[in-house]
Specification:
The protein has 121 residues and is mainly α. It has helices at residues 22-35, 41-58, 67-80, 84-120, and strands at residues 9-11, 17-19. Strands 1-2 form a two-stranded antiparallel sheet. It is flat.
């Protein structure tokens, strides 16, 4: 049976507010476990539930957690759970995703610049 958390929404990097989905946390943790050749899904679920429970405590009085804050908490929880190798995998994955986002931003800026030049001619 799915847990019921008081957290109902999260804030994405672009500032938009979306519905909270524990499965996204679970899947991200599971991918980090798989990257280290582990597939203990019960352990993954336990860590995911711990992250969600801590979020509930942090935001009991209101407020909306951010994606970055949740990811930081996942890293911390992995470390506290004795999963240093998995935490490292998770951190590296986050870094790769950040580099991809920054690269997309650069490409979009170049496209805007080119569009501006074309509009001026």
């Amino acid at each position: 049976m799915a847990e019921s958390y008081t957290i109902k929404r999260i804030k994405k990097r672009d500032g938009s507010i979306v519905l909270f989905d524990e499965n996204k946390i679970t899947n991200a943790i599971f991918r980090a476990f798989k990257a280290t050749d582990q597939d203990d899904y019960e352990k993954v679920k336990k860590i995911s539930k711990k992250v969600c429970s801590v979020l509930d405590i942090f935001f009991m009085g209101g407020g909306i957690p951010t994606v970055e804050g949740i990811q930081d908490l996942v890293e911390k929880t992995l470390m506290e759970s004795g999963e240093a190798e998995v935490a490292k995998s998770y951190i590296l994955y986050r870094k790769q995703r950040q580099e991809i986002r920054e690269g997309k931003g650069f490409i979009l800026d170049v496209q805007k610049t080119m569009d501006g030049y074309i509009d001026q001619s």
